[in-house]
Design a protein that fits this description.
- The chain contains three helices and seven strands, in the order H-E-H-E-E-E-E-H-E-E.
- It is of the alpha/beta class.
- Strand 3 and strand 4 form a beta hairpin.
- It is globular and about 55 Å long.
């Protein structure tokens, strides 16, 4: 049931509405570019589109392209922390024990999108076949929850990653009332009318 507060959420505002249509690039830091290329290119299927030598404080930078044209990049730096802080909801990752982070990172984790739950399961099998520890798939039926399927794992540097889908083509989304996702009963003033 939709409450008055849920119906009142201001979804968009300002002159920039609709102008940003995706990510140009996201940059993470790694310790070993060789291991990272083998992971992101060979296991996750991203395309290497640019390499750069040492400059501006990093040892090298590589760009990977996703099929939709968005870019993901890595800086190699030998001074990177051995492991990032645990993500906030870290019980989802099979390598973590559920203990909350003592100092949360500004980027908690990164989730890569696929179109269907079958593709999430494909990645689960594929990663496991290559020795990556991967969670079981969890999710909700389309039209009932936010994500229809998702799995959790880490890259060679311990960066928490996810492969997820909302399965947008599923007929369960037809007529879905998105206001049911507004669960904060005391939302911040900027989303109120």
């Amino acid at each position: 049931m939709t409450t008055e507060t849920q119906r009142e959420i201001v979804q968009t505002a300002g002159e920039a509405t609709g102008k940003i249509n995706g990510f140009n690039h996201i940059v993470l830091v790694c310790k070993d570019m060789e291991a990272s290329v083998r992971f992101y290119r060979d296991l996750l299927g991203l395309k290497v589109v640019k390499t750069a030598p040492a400059r501006r404080g990093y040892e090298r930078q590589y760009f990977f392209e996703l099929p939709n044209g968005e870019l993901f990049s890595l800086y190699q730096m030998s001074t990177v922390a051995p492991e990032p802080q645990r993500p906030v909801v870290n019980k989802l990752w099979p390598t973590l024990d559920g203990t909350p982070p003592d100092r949360p990172e500004k980027l908690d984790h990164m989730a890569f999108n696929v179109d269907t739950r079958e593709e999430v399961l494909w990645f689960q099998r594929h990663l496991r076949e290559h020795g990556v520890l991967v969670s079981e798939m969890i999710g909700d039926e389309p039209g009932t929850g936010f994500l229809a399927g998702r799995i959790y794992f880490v890259d060679p540097d311990g960066t928490p990653l996810e492969v997820a889908t909302s399965e947008p083509g599923n007929p369960g989304w037809q007529g879905f009332d998105y206001t049911t996702w507004y669960e904060d009963t005391d939302p911040v003033p900027s989303v109120r009318p």
